[in-house]
Backbone:
DNA sequence: TACACGTGGCT
DNA sequence: TAGCCAAGTGT
């Protein structure tokens, strides 16, 4: 079936997009910590957890602290989960800290303390999804697997499909597309994976793409089509944070992190006036395991 | 599939 | 300045 889409994919492969991006990345990129030679797989895993929906600039200092304190999975597994939540500080989405702690326990118990390199084994770890599993396999172990994040999705949408935005995720199709563009040898494939992410983050950005600096501008289907406005299904809108349950949860958890002792319910009550919403947020934190009740007080989880 | 889930910087 | 956006995952 020679669909228009199949033709687009073939054209992209013929243009050598994967090879071009790999060469562009190899010629120069930001010296991010997890790209350093010899950076441990555990460090890559921790960085990928922290980078889930969190900008690079906010991750870098926190990552250094974590790896100094917990240089290997067994070290993190040896402390209570609440310590992970506390050290997570204000990176956001604190259940990532809980998942990372649980992952460290699983790695210690099931994988002899070594971060697995098999995709299926990685996917079995709590908090590790399709993106993180492939990122660890590709970047920590040099395995030739397609890595697709929001940046890669945007580059693929524009360069290959000729549309301005990636739209709703179609994981299987996008993985297959990235796979088809990956250079054959593993080292170059890794450069292509990292390069596509770097390209999407620094050049082919969501709001203001800088096509003058793009290594694949000549092969870009979106550019060739005259940058048509996006007409596909709208991406789901993010709901306002102010006044949301998320804000209440964040405020409560911030108080728990700051206290070595359980925080009295009376103090928690001062954090949010609306009692119904406050209790809902508190119940959510307890259900998620981010907090535990101690008599008439609340604390970070100790086990 | 759609939605919940933190936080802060940028335009 | 209000909304957009950020190396996603779990349900």
Residues:
């Amino acid at each position: 079936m020679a669909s228009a889409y199949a033709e687009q994919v073939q054209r992209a492969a013929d243009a050598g997009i994967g090879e071009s991006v790999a060469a562009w990345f190899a010629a120069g990129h930001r010296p991010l910590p997890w790209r350093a030679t010899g950076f441990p797989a555990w460090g890559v895993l921790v960085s990928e957890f922290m980078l889930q929906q969190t900008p690079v600039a906010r991750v870098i200092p926190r990552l250094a602290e974590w790896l100094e304190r917990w240089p290997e999975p067994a070290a993190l597994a040896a402390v209570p989960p609440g310590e992970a939540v506390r050290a997570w500080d204000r990176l956001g989405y604190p259940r990532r800290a809980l998942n990372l702690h649980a992952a460290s326990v699983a790695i210690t118990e099931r994988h002899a303390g070594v971060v697995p390199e098999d995709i299926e084994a990685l996917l079995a770890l709590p908090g590790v999804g399709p993106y993180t599993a492939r990122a660890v396999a590709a970047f920590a172990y040099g395995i030739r697997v397609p890595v697709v994040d929001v940046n890669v999705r945007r580059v693929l949408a524009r360069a290959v499909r000729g549309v301005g935005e990636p739209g709703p995720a179609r994981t299987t199709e996008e993985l297959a597309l990235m796979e088809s563009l990956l250079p054959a040898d593993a080292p170059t494939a890794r450069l292509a994976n990292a390069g596509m992410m770097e390209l999407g983050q620094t050049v082919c950005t969501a709001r203001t793409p800088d096509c003058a600096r793009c290594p694949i501008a000549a092969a870009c289907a979106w550019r060739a089509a005259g940058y048509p406005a996006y007409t596909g299904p709208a991406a789901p809108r993010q709901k306002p944070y102010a006044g949301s349950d998320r804000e209440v949860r964040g405020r409560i958890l911030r108080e728990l992190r700051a206290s070595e002792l359980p925080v009295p319910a009376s103090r928690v009550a001062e954090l949010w006036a609306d009692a119904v919403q406050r209790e809902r947020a508190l119940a959510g934190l307890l259900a998620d395991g981010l907090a535990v009740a101690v008599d008439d007080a609340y604390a970070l989880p100790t086990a």
